[in-house]
């Protein structure tokens, strides 16, 4: 997933943002002002910055210009509702703008859309003893390759790329088998059971009456 910088002077809002972003697998760094944010970016630029406009000292627009000039995508998160402020943020090159108060689901959707446009897809995922190499289309468990069919790998890859996010059977069916597939969602259940038999049941959780979620086994989570 992505490395995301949150720059927000209100601790409660930083906590909410961090909680939701971490829950879906992103790594989060937090700053309460522009000076702290600049220091955090000095060693490694984030994949995306969520910036509040009304910061103490240097404002979010000024910080946003600096980050954008370094190639860091910016999403402004602010209570400023005036159209000129929104136009200013977007005109300087920000990827998006969301107003407070916001629904977490909307924020996550906007973040995912930005990352799809700006961030290269990860080439591999390591989760406990399981390693998935997307480029080579291989999965290994404790160093031993797991024999997977093309459909099984595609299903595993789709779940793993969205780890910790619940995916519906319909979404998985469309993403793996294609929208033109005439089969039923039961097909997804059958292939999930086969995957569990090969990599272990703990990696793919059932979301009751909805679908499935990929996650590291509880004892292996950081």
What does it look like?
The protein is of the alpha/beta class and 222 residues long. It has two domains: 3-118, Rossmann fold (3-Layer(aba) Sandwich); 124-220, Orthogonal Bundle (Arc Repressor Mutant, subunit A), CATH 1.10.10. The chain is 41% helix and 21% strand. It has helices spanning 11-23, 34-43, 60-69, 83-91, 104-118, 150-161, 169-177, 186-199, and strands spanning 3-7, 27-31, 48-51, 74-78, 96-99, 124-127, 130-133, 138-141, 144-145, 167-168, 204-207, 211-214. The protein has a five-stranded parallel sheet, sandwiched between helices. Strands 6-7-8-9 form a four-stranded antiparallel sheet, covered by helices on one side. The radius of gyration is 20 Å and the shape is elongated. The two termini are 15 Å apart. The model has no long low-confidence stretch (mean pLDDT 87).
SSE layout and pairings?
Layout (H helix, E strand, L loop, with lengths): L2 E5 L3 H13 L3 E5 L2 H10 L4 E4 L8 H10 L4 E5 L4 H9 L4 E4 L4 H15 L5 E4 L2 E4 L4 E4 L2 E2 L4 H12 L5 E2 H9 L8 H14 L4 E4 L3 E4 L8
Parallel strand pairs: 1-2, 1-3, 3-4, 4-5
Antiparallel strand pairs: 6-7, 7-8, 8-9, 10-12, 11-12
Helix pairs in contact: 6-7, 6-8
